[in-house]
Amino acid sequence: MNALYNLSIFFYSILIRLSAPFNIKAGQISKGRKLTFADLQSKIKHDKPIAWVHCASLGEFEQGRPIIEAIRKQHPEYRILLTFFSPSGYEIRKNYDLADYICYLPADTKKNAERLIELVRPEVVFFVKYEFWFHYINELKKRNIPLYLVSAIFRENQLFFKNTLWGKWYRKMLFSFEQFFVQDDQSVRLLHGVGIKNVTKAGDTRFDRVAEIARNGKNIPLVEKLKGNSLLVVAGSTWKPDEELLIQYIHSHPETKFVIAPHETKKANVERLISLLKTPVICYTEATEESVMNKQVLIVDTIGILSSIYKYADLAYIGGGFGVGIHNTLEAAIFGMPIVFGPNYLKFNEATSMVKLGIAFPVTDSTSLNLIFDQLLSDNQKRNWIARECTGFTNHNLGATQIILNKVFNR
């Protein structure tokens, strides 16, 4: 099985290199991986112990970030290495100032794992949520370097729990982790069922992150002026299928104001969105407090402010639910409002929990979106009840970061 795994990594790496001239993300990851060792070699210092945090992409970074920031605050004696698998994480967070070193994770070969770990010599390692790289895990185990999986979720259909050759091979990796910090009871049950007992139900560290955002949220005067005395819907991280439904509602409800923050903020995509809107619209980067007041729609064509914009919303729509899965619902939930999203949300524990509590609402088409938007925007009493329930839900789930740090650094 080792040989098959190595072969799959080899062919994947070849595919990345061959695609690099034609695919932006493939080019970024190919170039970034080539620079990792030289970059670390020139910068790494061993005057302090190193904590290594690895995230697949931007979403996992939001779960790893509270751990990084808590280590920085509570254990300043550590330097921090942050690695990414995906360009969508690295390219956005490559200048994150609370990590000492930030780079791509080289392909998971035995040689790369040995070289990276020898170079970094981490004292403690955190992999976030879904990251299972055989050679890195194996090399850390051989060197007795403690490895922790944080904000993890396990499901019955994962390879670890199948009695196939691949399943049994993957399952062996689980025994190399020092501790699993999981989000839910099902994950605890599944791990216990295959003999893994070093499991702590800690929850999702993103709750701690969004609570910090809410405490330090920026005021956005342009959004205040847009909203005025009107109801405001904030649609975050939208894709084309989300926008097609929203635009139908926007056109039929000119009295309601909208902020749309598309997932892709490149000029061509923003111009496409503007072309579809037959109503007064302006981009954030072009708006003034005066010019925004007579517009119905504000398009956020920049990054880094969406989480602060949610606090002005009477209702939030979270994009991605008509694709591979919804984006971050907690950024909106922390401010206490109804949340609407597309049908592909079942892999997200926080979303399924909110649906069961009656504070989030999945839609499947324009008819269901129109119905739920009308119901929620016309019922102040219901929105106030949802706000209270959201606050209770988010407060109940705080504290995962501290549970993890207490266990790791007081072992």
Automatic annotation (TrEMBL):
InterPro entries assigned to the protein according to its UniProt record, in alphabetical order: Glycos_transf_N, Glycos_transf_N_sf, Kdotransferase
Top EC class, one word: transferase
GO molecular function, one term: Kdo transferase activity
A Pfam family matched in the record: Glycos_transf_N
UniProt keywords, alphabetically: Cell membrane, Lipopolysaccharide biosynthesis, Membrane, Transferase
Pathways involved: Bacterial outer membrane biogenesis; LPS core biosynthesis
GO cellular component: plasma membrane
Location in the cell: Cell membrane
Enzyme Commission designation: 2.4.99.12
Catalytic function, reaction form: lipid IVA (E. coli) + CMP-3-deoxy-beta-D-manno-octulosonate = alpha-Kdo-(2->6)-lipid IVA (E. coli) + CMP + H(+)
Domain 3-deoxy-D-manno-octulosonic-acid transferase N-terminal, chain residue ranges per copy: 45-208
Function: Involved in lipopolysaccharide (LPS) biosynthesis. Catalyzes the transfer of 3-deoxy-D-manno-octulosonate (Kdo) residue(s) from CMP-Kdo to lipid IV(A), the tetraacyldisaccharide-1,4'-bisphosphate precursor of lipid A.
The family this protein is said to belong to: Belongs to the glycosyltransferase group 1 family.
Protein name according to UniProt: 3-deoxy-D-manno-octulosonic acid transferase
Organism: Aquipluma nitroreducens
